[in-house]
Specification:
The chain is built from 14 helices and seven strands. The chain is mainly alpha-helical and 329 residues long. It has a three-stranded antiparallel beta sheet with strand order 3-4-5. Helix 10 crosses helix 11. The longest helix has 21 residues.
Length: 329
């Protein structure tokens, strides 16, 4: 009799566990579960929390999709050539497409921020205030984030139906800024002037940035943020020339290494050490030293670029031998 009760208890427990695992999560539950991560990412990088949550809930079916459950991929981000992490294959626009796989949902949110920041086609979005979710939604559609012609409207509806725009008021340049790092007098002046001149200052890799508008020069940009032209050039590792439209420029000094989680980058056709330094907010000289490279040295597609640590002498020597062999061929 006692054994029968134990068996019955086990069966009931397994049944309840199975029911729970198959239970679909609502959008309200999704927002409650991940709003803090979305707000944190907004404070660090300037992407509206409402947009992040709307995209995550829409792309993952509120965390109920197979891709979300099996791979923690909440944003439908595909592998692309630069992805070196785990992957899975699902049918999407085409059969058996490669999608990124994450160890946690939080990792998916972090990579979503990195994906938008490191891709030049999304650069213009960071000139839009974090409180303008409508412009962000339309911008994502314009940049080709999704093929759905109603993508922007669907994001906006989710945001408005669930009042996700409330979270955007907690961003770095709106709402409560008491916990933000203390700014220098020069930084405060440049921000105030930029606001008066209708220039948005965003965050890229946690650093203050602007997006180049059509017809702007380094001189005009410097005036618009109350800096010297040489400072803009220095912060962005330029020695001359003029910036490109929609290019992201830093208005404070870059760091000596990439942020945690960005250990290396795999070079693609057309990449340069300067473009990689700009993507990850690293001083060009520091990036060159880490990879034991000289200014102007060309990159080979597939070459591993270290972003936080320094390449070993042996690996650098092996790289040089491979490049020499390739040149001889």
């Amino acid at each position: 009799m006692k054994e029968s009760k134990i068996i019955l208890t086990i069966i009931l427990s397994l049944s309840l566990l199975n029911v729970f695992s198959q239970r679909r999560f609502s959008r309200e539950e999704y927002v409650a579960n991940y709003k803090n991560i979305a707000i944190r990412e907004m404070k660090a990088y300037g992407i509206p929390a409402s947009i992040t949550l709307a995209q995550g809930s829409l792309e993952s079916d509120n965390g109920n999709s197979t891709l979300a459950k099996e791979s923690n991929n909440h944003f439908g981000i595909k592998c692309k050539s630069s992805w070196q992490g785990p992957s899975v294959f699902f049918d999407d626009d085409e059969k058996n497409e490669c999608f990124r796989k994450y160890s946690s949902v939080e990792e998916s949110y972090i990579d979503h921020s990195s994906f938008l920041m490191s891709n030049p086609r999304y650069a213009f979005l960071f000139s839009i205030p974090a409180t303008d979710y409508v412009a962000w939604a339309n911008g994502l559609k314009k940049a080709g984030y999704a093929t759905d012609p109603n993508y922007a409207n669907r994001l906006i509806k989710i945001i408005e139906d669930y009042q996700l725009y409330i979270f955007d008021q907690l961003g770095p340049l709106a709402g409560n800024t008491s916990k933000q790092p203390k700014r220098s007098r020069a930084q405060s002046r440049s921000e105030e002037l930029a606001i008066r001149l209708h220039r948005s200052i965003g965050l890229h890799n946690g650093l203050k940035t602007i997006v180049v508008r059509r017809g702007e020069t380094f001189e005009s940009i410097a005036k618009s943020v109350d800096l010297k032209e040489w400072e803009i050039l220095h912060y962005n590792d330029y020695s001359g020339g003029q910036p490109r439209e929609n290019e992201i420029l830093y208005i404070e000094s870059k760091r000596g290494k990439a942020e945690s989680g960005n250990d290396y980058y795999i070079a693609r056709n057309g990449d340069s050490m300067h473009t990689i330094a700009q993507i990850y907010g690293i001083r060009l000289k520091s990036l060159l030293r880490k990879n034991r490279m000289e200014p102007g040295e060309n990159l080979a597609p597939g070459q591993k670029i270290y972003l936080r640590s320094k390449i070993s002498k042996d690996e650098a020597a092996q790289r040089a031998m491979q490049q020499k062999a390739a040149h001889l061929q």
